[in-house]
DNA sequence: CTTGCGGTTAAGAAAC
DNA sequence: GTTTCTTAACCGCAAG
């Protein structure tokens, strides 16, 4: 498009006289198409023989202010037919970045050549006329240049014009134009097809990449699940070893060893996941924990144990105690944020106090849900006892 | 600003 | 179906 807009400075190779000013009237370089602006246009000479060129002139009216395609250096005007020049330019479109590689099965130039050979793009000369012309041109020392040819032919043909000639020319003109249009349609159609094909290919590649990404993700998930399972196995083995050790010590010592509650086999880190999974099948449990936010009794006990541990260690409730508690909960296999731990603790205590103060009777069926009451009560007792001792 | 605490509310489950 | 219990989550206030 840049080329057509006239601002393309890209240098193409020598086949195309890119440095030639197509509208430069000084040497008549573009008169073949637009007619001489100095000595009168082609159309001013109705009896010109070069019908195809005349057609081109009709198709492309002379530009008024459009800047021609220029490049840095002026090259000598070639003795080439304009259609050859056009073909050469079209063939360079891919190089110039207008079309992708292989936009056309064969070079456009060759297509044009084919069209010419098959007579689709006749230049409007009959063999005889052409030979005649050649002779005349050579007599005038003019090269095979559209302008020279057309102008010299025009001047001569004026004298030879007759009515039958005019009718034939008119027909040829129409025919040529139709063929030109047909050819251009074909070119555009071919370009569009090519672009469509490329677009489809691009979509295919994108789909393939997306598929690959999903596949990798799946593989990663699988791997992660495997790793978790392995961890769980190791933990179980460790627990079994510990239990057998404890049993052995028991038999050796002959005394009952109290195992702290928090030494219960910890749940795997994915217990939250399990909760959500089990929540679905937990019409079976008292509370479905359907929301996934409810704390199961074991988790509540773990929280209380963690809290009492930290309290023993620090002796204070201040500071980042809930961070420590959250970390301890994680060690036990429960993933709860410090904020959640704190909230749960507060809510639990609130409810405990409310119930204790209110002296409400526990629902028999709900005794399980308040399994933490006992632990909390113990905790309060020990706390108050230690406070009394300090006093 | 952080922390602890009390109050409130909506939602879910069990008891009636 | 209604009532009651239990819980999570949010808000505000006071103390440090």
Structural topology:
Blueprint (H helix, E strand, L loop, with lengths): L1 H4 L25 H4 L16 H9 L22 H10 L16 H10 L9 H13 L6 H15 L2 H91 L17 H11 L15 H18 L6 H11 L6 H21 L13 H19 L1
The structure holds a DNA duplex (16 and 16 nucleotides).
Describe what you observe in this structure.
The chain is built from 13 helices and no strands. The chain is mostly helical. The protein folds into two domains: 2-193, no CATH class; 290-390, Arc Repressor Mutant, subunit A (Orthogonal Bundle). The model is unreliable at 1-65, 67-79, 97-109, 118-159, 260-291 and 364-368 (pLDDT under 50). The chain binds a DNA duplex (16 and 16 nucleotides) through residues 286-288, 290-291, 293-295, 317-319, 340, 342-344, 346-351, 353, 360, 362-363, 365-366, 369-370.
Properties at a glance:
single chain; 391 residues; mainly alpha; Arc Repressor Mutant, subunit A; 2 domains; 0% strand; disordered N terminus; DNA-binding; SANT/Myb; DNA binding; Myb_DNA-bind_4; transcription
Shape type: elongated
Mean pLDDT: 61
Q: What is the tally of beta strands? A: 0
- State the helical fraction: 55-70%
Report the order of strands and helices. Answer: HHHHHHHHHHHHH
Keywords: DNA-binding, Nucleus, Transcription, Transcription regulation
Main location: nucleus
Domain Myb-like: 294-349
Pfam families: Myb_DNA-bind_4 (PF13837)
């Amino acid at each position: 498009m840049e080329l057509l807009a006239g601002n393309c400075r890209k240098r193409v190779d020598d086949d195309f006289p890119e440095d030639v000013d197509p509208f430069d009237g000084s040497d008549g370089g573009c008169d073949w198409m637009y007619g001489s602006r100095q000595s009168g246009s082609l159309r001013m000479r109705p009896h010109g023989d070069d019908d195809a060129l005349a057609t081109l002139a009709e198709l492309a009216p002379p530009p008024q202010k459009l800047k021609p395609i220029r490049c840095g250096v002026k090259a000598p005007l070639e003795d080439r037919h304009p259609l050859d020049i056009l073909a050469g330019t079209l063939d360079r479109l891919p190089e110039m970045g207008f079309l992708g590689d292989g936009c056309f099965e064969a070079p456009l130039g060759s297509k044009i050549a084919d069209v010419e050979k098959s007579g689709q793009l006749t230049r409007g000369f009959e063999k005889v006329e052409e030979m005649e012309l050649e002779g005349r041109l050579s007599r005038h020392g003019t090269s095979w240049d559209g302008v020279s040819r057309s102008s010299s032919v025009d001047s001569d043909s004026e004298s030879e014009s007759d009515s039958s000639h005019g009718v034939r020319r008119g027909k040829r003109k129409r025919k040529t134009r139709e063929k030109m249009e047909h050819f251009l349609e074909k070119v555009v159609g071919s370009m569009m097809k090519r672009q469509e094909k490329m677009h489809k290919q691009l979509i295919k590649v994108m789909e393939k990449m997306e598929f690959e990404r999903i596949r990798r993700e799946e593989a990663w998930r699988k791997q992660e699940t495997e790793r978790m399972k392995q961890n769980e196995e190791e933990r179980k083995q460790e627990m079994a070893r510990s239990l057998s050790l404890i049993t052995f010590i028991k038999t050796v010592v002959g005394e009952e060893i109290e195992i702290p509650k928090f030494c219960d086999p910890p749940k795997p880190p994915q217990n939250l996941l399990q909760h959500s999974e089990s929540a679905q099948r937990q019409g079976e449990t008292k509370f479905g924990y359907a929301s996934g936010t409810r704390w199961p009794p074991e988790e509540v006990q773990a929280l209380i144990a963690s809290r009492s541990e930290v309290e023993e260690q620090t002796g204070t409730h201040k500071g980042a105690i809930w961070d420590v508690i959250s970390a301890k909960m994680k060690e036990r296999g429960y993933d709860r944020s410090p904020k959640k731990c704190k909230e749960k603790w507060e809510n639990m205590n609130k409810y405990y106090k409310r119930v204790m103060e209110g002296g409400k009777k526990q629902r028999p069926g709900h005794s399980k849900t308040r399994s933490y009451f006992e632990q909390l009560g113990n905790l309060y007792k020990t706390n108050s006892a230690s406070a009394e001792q300090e006093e």
